[in-house]
Amino acid sequence: MYNILNLIETTNNYSYKEIIEKLKSDSADDFLKIFLMINLEKIENETDFDIFINNLTLQSTPVREICAYRLGELFKNNFLNEFSKNKILDAIVDINPNVSRSICCLIKKNSFLGENLEKNIILRIEDLLAGIKKDKNYLNCNKSHAKNKKFFSLYWLLEALSCCISRKYLAQIKEILNFTIEFLDYTIREKTAKILTFDEIYFKDLLQIAKSDVNFYVKIQVYDKINFDD
Asked: Nearest 10 degrees: CA dihedral of 99, 38, 11, 42?
């Protein structure tokens, strides 16, 4: 275990090349990786970015969390390739919501990233829903780890979709929302309602369902779309 004060002093003196080499190492201590990522001021090329973003998954929770946070500051459009794209897609459904939230914030603020991820996010949602629909008991109230994991993943994928939705895939998206608007878990209906506000004309019929939802958190998403004379 490192002495924190010594660790701060040591990592402050690392060169860029030394930071990248340590982040590349599978044997590097988690605390060391965390402070190295904090001290990383830039990423110079796609190869180094792949080394950095490899820490976004399959690492300890603190490492994944700081990697997701710094990603928002260090990401450049020209770094995006299939490897980094899949790392970001996997991180959307990280078990740590702080990681998921950081990734969704990045997708929302970076239109290039959103444009390049929207189709993949839709495909992952469709894949997840196909598995959920095969489970005849998915609508019952019985809780299970497997079911909660699927619902958690669906929640964050819908949130990510709300951050990058465009008109390009509206027909596919509507097929998804036709199912999720009736979901038993209100958090899924809440995220569905958030997406519906993207186009109140195209999603008019589903907005009618959302605005009549019994749950406050669902209804508040479409509050400004409600005609109280309806």
From this structure: 120
